[in-house]
Amino acid sequence: MKKLIEGIKNFQQGPFPAKRLLFEQLAEGQNPLALFITCSDSRIDPNLLTDSEPGELFVLRNGGHIVPPYGAANGGEAATIEQAVKLLGIRDIIVCGHSHCAAMAARLAPESLAEYPAIRDWLRYAEDTRGIVPKDYGHVSQDVDDLTIAVESNVLLQLAQLRTHPSVAAAIERNELELHGWVYQFETGRVFAYDFARARFELADATIK
Ligand SMILES: [Zn+2]
Questions:
Q1: pLDDT band at residue 33, thresholds of 50, 70 and 90?
Q2: Which of the two ends of the chain, N or C, has the fewest CB atoms closer than 10 A to its terminal CB?
Q3: Pairing state of beta strands 190-195 and 200-203?
């Protein structure tokens, strides 16, 4: 904890005064650019990897960046999504998986979760990805490892489950919301984005239009 407490002091003496105006403006309200749904994994920093500022990303995080189908779970996910879409009028939602995801590795080896009933129950919402999104999943070649397949297919599954939320479905229907599937490779800094037309993940900077 000592490092974190000292970190607060450092923040108040350096980064905060440098951005005082921004923080004062944020007291008036927020108008984030996107809802960013990602894993709790400490190696992901949404603001850092998108070079964005406080106030620009509305963030939802949990182990495995899971969005249970609407009505299936009593967690805070549905409320957070509703707040983002209906209350804040966010027009883009990014579901961002990542390399070396322990949740996805556990999904591939369910026997490793015998002593972790809460994790096992939660990962039910990330099961059977191939069965649920087969038509979106024709791009995986034989040389891709199982964990990468699990990470990519889980992003697609969570996007599908996101669409079951009424606020999301209605906003998409009105052409007021776009969904994006990303995979962040933290060891290289690269981000892959799912190209829905080509049904495959491509380097995100190549898909910017
Ligand atoms: Zn993870």
A1: very high
A2: C
A3: antiparallel
How far, in Å, from the CA of 116 to the mean position of ligand 1?
16
SS3 143: coil
Alpha helices in the chain (DSSP H): 2-13, 15-18, 20-26, 46-49, 77-82, 102-108, 117-122, 129-132, 146-162, 166-173, 204-207
Q: Which tens digits make up the pLDDT trace of 128-144?
A: 654 444 444 445 544 56
Output the pLDDT for position 78. Answer: 96
CA of 52 to the centre of ligand 1 (A): 21
| All domains of the chain in start order, with CATH | 1-30 (no CATH), 32-201 (3.40.1050.10)
Going from the C-alpha of 2 to that of each of 5, 10, 200, the distances in angstroms are 5, 12, 44
DSSP state of 83: I
Burial 45-59 (b: 16+ CB within 10 A, else e): ebeebbeeeebbbbe
How many A from CA of 28 to the centre of ligand 1? Answer: 33
pLDDT of residue 130: 46
Ligand 1 centre and the CA of 172: distance in Å? Answer: 27
